[in-house]
Write a structure and sequence with these properties.
The protein is of the alpha+beta class. It has helices at 12-15, 47-58, 77-85, 95-102, 114-128, 130-135, 137-156, 163-180, 193-209, 222-251, 262-271, 279-310, 312-326, 342-354, 436-453; strands spanning 22-23, 61-66, 69-74, 91-93, 361-365, 369-371, 374-376, 381-384, 454-458, 467-470, 472-475, 480-484. The protein has a single domain (12-484), classed as Cytochrome P450 (Cytochrome p450, Orthogonal Bundle), CATH 1.10.630.10. Helix content is 47%, strand content 10%. It has a five-stranded mixed β-sheet. A three-stranded mixed β-sheet has the order 1-7-6. α7 (137-156) packs parallel to α15, α8 runs antiparallel to α12 and α13 crosses α15 (436-453). The radius of gyration is 23 Å and the shape is globular. The protein binds protoporphyrin IX containing FE. Residues 84, 109-110, 121, 124, 175, 288-289, 292-293, 296-297, 300, 357-358, 361, 425-428, 431-436, 438-439 line the site of protoporphyrin IX containing FE. Belongs to the cytochrome P450 family. InterPro entries: Cyt_P450 (IPR001128), Cyt_P450_CS (IPR017972), Cyt_P450_E_grp-I (IPR002401), Cyt_P450_sf (IPR036396). This is Cytochrome P450.
Amino acid sequence: MDANTSAPPLDAKRMGTFEFSRTIADLPAPKGLPLVGSLLKLSGRQFHLTLADWIREFGPVFRLDVMGHQLMVLSEPAAVEGLLRDRPDGFRRTSNLKTSMGELKIAGVITAEGDDWRKQRRLVMGGLNAEVVRNFFPTMVVITERVLLRWKTAVAEGRRIDLHRDLKAMALDVIVAIAMGQDIDAVNDDGNQVQRDIDNIFQRLGARNATLLPYWRHFKLPVDRAADKSADDIEQAVIGFVKDARERMAQQPQLRQKPGNMLEAMIAASENPESGFTDQELISNAIMSVIGGEDTTANSMAWMINLLAQNPEAAATLAAEVDAVLGDAPVAREWEWLKQLPYLEAAHSETQRLRAVAPFMGFASNADCVVADTFVPKDTVIFVANTGASQDEAHFPQHELFRPERWIFDGKPSREEDPSRKVFPFGAGPRLCPGRFLALTEIKMVLAMLVRNFELVPDLDAPPVEQLLNFFVGPSAVPVRLKLRAR
Ligand code: HEM
């Protein structure tokens, strides 16, 4: 529940200026317990699955009763898109998110609102836009080749590969390189401290989100103290990166006009007294990028590998597409090649449909408004299931099947047909994920390298893969063995 929300009672005068056919009280709702309502169901590592069950049972717009408050849950695509577009003015992120992330030193654009958000968003976008990602491509090739070498060596030596661990390390190398201009080579450093710290922070965020009583605000267990230490360590590492970048920029003043990475761009902007950008905001956004760029992308790749291993036909179609574009090259060496992989893009979209890493978000309304024909009072909490339509047969027939083909059209699909108007794995509107272009580039590089060089062999003896909500949703394992492809 959002601590800032206490919607005042409705009255006819307040509602008179709006057109709507129902109020939140008219919506269907799961039956909760006396007094607490559905509170006990709102936490836990499987909350996203409970939400999906509710969507199946109660439809795309329903209500949750929690401790005497009425919350709304929305998965109807047009209403979801409309709400996401009406930010930051119409809706804000819940203050719970800001508090729980802030406690572990994650702040910056993701939890900023209003003009503060506008200012920070411009800066973060400047560091992650298409041109920056394109200029970064040569480094991306080097990092991908590093992963290939590691996997080939492991296969040759008959060693088991921990794919999920390696994908996280690779995503970390990419984000630290593009955001900070540093090569930490976490891929080849099995005990990398930054990676351990990020894992620690996500585990704590996930566990705290799954806990009803925020005990850690009153006393700390060893795990809480360890997470605090990880947050401090990451802050210190980032402060070090900022110091290095400032020294670099002092020696090469031209970097102020032509920054080489996101951090340099932010430093250059913050030095302008009119920017109003503080040192703390600079550090917060740098920390947020490192943390935000790792698990999202790594979990997406891990899900995609699991799904391809279970769908050998799709994997073979993908391998054929990649072979045709890469030729003899073991990794994509030209930026243009990445644009010639429509099946790979479709397989990624299908992965996000079935296994979104961020399948819901919490918002609060900034003013009385109407959402999905429902009157919504100011300060109402709304859970937006941004990929909630993914299991709706009307939108995605045989929805449980992994079928990248549903994302491929001869021409431009009509608005009604277009699947990208039905699920929003990267959000939508002004706060659309600024890292999506980087993430997509990285995912294409790794998956193309993977299917070009290896066959994916599912480990049939492994227990079923679970979907775990650890702040982001990720697979419990990637039980897939790599076998070198014959050339
Ligand atoms: C497959 C990978 C990723 C997925 C699925 C993903 C998903 C999302 C989603 C759903 C949002 C919320 C959007 C909204 O409110 O409409 C978001 C926001 C954000 N993401 Fe990503 N993300 C990914 C990768 C990245 C990467 C690599 C970065 C790099 C730093 C990043 C940085 C951010 C930031 C800064 C925001 C907050 C934007 C704002 O509030 O204005 N993400 N992401």
